[in-house]
Amino acid sequence: MRAFPTGFRRAMPDAPQELQFPLYVKAPLVLLGLALVVFTLHIASDLIFPIFFAAIFAIMLHPVEQWLLRRKVPPLLAIALTVVLGVAALLALLYFIYLEATQLSGQLPMFKTKFFHTAQVVEQWLNARFGITNQKLMGYLNEAGSRAAGLAGGTLTAVSGLLVAATLLPVYIFLLFLYQKRLVTFLTQVFAGRQPGTGVDEVLHESKAAIQSYMIGLLIEGSIVAVLNVGALLALGIPYALLLGVLGALLNFIPYVGGLAAIALPVLMAFVTKDGLGYPAGVVAVYVVIQFIDNHFLIPRIVASKIKVNALVAIVGVLVGNAVGGVAGMFLALPVIAILKIIFDRIESLRPWGLLLGDEEATEKPAAEGTAPRRRPLLRNTAARPIAAPGQ
């Protein structure tokens, strides 16, 4: 069998040439891919979101499992103890909220009486000031009540679905711990194949570190906000300050939207249990101060430094997450965007998307002489070298 000339063998391309499409073809394909991803997440949200939550909780609990393994605890027992510890902490928080809510439910008759009295005062003021009669007001209230009932029904349905899915979280977390090495090997072989140095291990490590730092930062920030909320409500004399402060801190985990709900609950409590408008106004004032401290001091130093995502992408991502998966989608929006940014930054053809998602400046200075080379991207566009003619 005749061998190829030496020059021809040297000129063989190292990688297949990448297909190039014009913009009017590439843009519709990108939009179609995004639409298919969003549609798939919306249809299969009951299956996909619990797995996402289990992966996030597994990443948070991974240091506990590693600590137990370093203490010579058997692997299965270490995984079981880690899952039990995480579930116990979550159940303790839910039990505390249940106890506080049970005490609050005993005051519902008083709240109802106060609400009807306030409604009569507001009705008289509106009639005297704007000429709104009782019939018009009742029509507005009935319309608002029907909308609120629909919203409450949807919220209860979503919460019940989350509770059902939450029963599978310990199982998912246990299995993710049990098969973590197999999953890492699978991802490495799928995206890297047999080629070394493609950066898949680096992407997985940085994604894990980003989510872990983000969630720990959220817990620290939430604890500080809860202390500030409870202290402010106690100083104003608002009933059930502990419950409202903790709920406000939990709602604050939902980016850009949860803060509004966190303010609404204590304002409503002050309006129902206190005379006059001074206490509701005081609650609004102290919560605005707390939100200012949270947004300008706590989040930039504790949370935002872990995930470099700009505000526009974060808001759009939260809204898309709400449309796809409700509250669960809003909570998962930022970690998913952070992982996408880490991946995009290491794929040469997708770096503009990583720049769009990020919050850093779009400046890239050439490396000075003697400095370390830039990190290898996850995938590299390698154009085929020209094939030399035989004998050249």
UniProtKB/TrEMBL annotation:
<keyword id="KW-0813">Transport</keyword>
<dbReference type="Pfam" id="PF01594">
    <property type="entry name" value="AI-2E_transport"/>
</dbReference>
<keyword id="KW-0812">Transmembrane</keyword>
<feature type="transmembrane region" description="Helical">
    <location>
        <begin position="47"/>
        <end position="64"/>
    </location>
</feature>
<dbReference type="GO" id="GO:0005886">
    <property type="term" value="C:plasma membrane"/>
</dbReference>
<feature type="transmembrane region" description="Helical">
    <location>
        <begin position="76"/>
        <end position="98"/>
    </location>
</feature>
<keyword id="KW-1133">Transmembrane helix</keyword>
<comment type="similarity">
    <text>Belongs to the autoinducer-2 exporter (AI-2E) (TC 2.A.86) family.</text>
</comment>
<keyword id="KW-0472">Membrane</keyword>
<feature type="region of interest" description="Disordered">
    <location>
        <begin position="363"/>
        <end position="392"/>
    </location>
</feature>
<keyword id="KW-1003">Cell membrane</keyword>
<dbReference type="InterPro" id="IPR002549">
    <property type="entry name" value="AI-2E-like"/>
</dbReference>
<feature type="transmembrane region" description="Helical">
    <location>
        <begin position="156"/>
        <end position="179"/>
    </location>
</feature>
<feature type="transmembrane region" description="Helical">
    <location>
        <begin position="21"/>
        <end position="41"/>
    </location>
</feature>
<protein>
    <submittedName>
        <fullName>AI-2E family transporter</fullName>
    </submittedName>
</protein>
<feature type="transmembrane region" description="Helical">
    <location>
        <begin position="311"/>
        <end position="344"/>
    </location>
</feature>
<feature type="transmembrane region" description="Helical">
    <location>
        <begin position="279"/>
        <end position="299"/>
    </location>
</feature>
<feature type="transmembrane region" description="Helical">
    <location>
        <begin position="218"/>
        <end position="241"/>
    </location>
</feature>
<feature type="transmembrane region" description="Helical">
    <location>
        <begin position="253"/>
        <end position="272"/>
    </location>
</feature>
